[in-house]
Amino acid sequence: MATINTANLISIGELAKRSGIAASALRFYESRGLISSVRGPAQRRQFQREVLRRVAFIRAAQTAGLSLEEIETTLTALPDQRTPTKQDWEKLSKSWQPLIEERIRSLTALRDQLSSCIGCGCLSLKSCALYNPQDIANNKGTGPRYLMGDKSSDLV
Q: What angle do CA 29, 68, 110 make, to 5 degrees?
């Protein structure tokens, strides 16, 4: 077990303040094993300063659209719960590019089709007779089919 430098510890309040993450979220991250603390005087949580970088990594991954499960898998693969290095970050960020591209495509479709039919099969809008006659979007499954990449011509 590694020796802990107590001069390098910060409280959960300081970690929350410096990271911009609520203390409750930090406790949740800890319960998921994404970050770890040590118990200081009076059994209060204290964190190594490097946890700030780990929390920044978690936030960046969430912004990129990764789930907590995916982030957990990524961080678990690092030895000894260490903070991702520059090399780790470069490798991981490249692996996230397809995910980010898909989010961009999905958001662009949402933006471009927001005022038209989304292919939900609801038949509640006057324009549904034009975009989704006889509820043909239902043939492709549930949800907003056109926003999910289905073309209206594919649904006929």
A: 135
| Residue keyed to tokens 């995910």 | 99
Which ranges of 32-145 would DSSP assign to H, the alpha helix? 51-63, 68-76, 86-113, 128-131
Q: What is the pLDDT of residues 20-42, one digit of tens each?
A: 999 999 999 999 989 989 887 77
Q: Which amino acid is at 125?
A: L
| Residue 4 φ/ψ, nearest 5 degrees | -100, 125
For the question of whether the overall pTM of this predicted structure is more than 0.85, the answer is: no
Give the CA count within 13 Å in the CB-facing half-sphere of 72.
11
d(CA 64, CA 80): 25
Q: Which distant-in-sequence residues (6+ apart) come within 8 Å of 1 by Cβ? A: none
* Contact (Cβ atoms closer than 8 angstroms) between residue 35 and residue 55: yes
The answer to whether 71 and 32 have CB atoms below 8 angstroms apart is: no
- Are residues 81 and 36 in contact, defined by beta-carbon separation less than 8 angstroms? yes
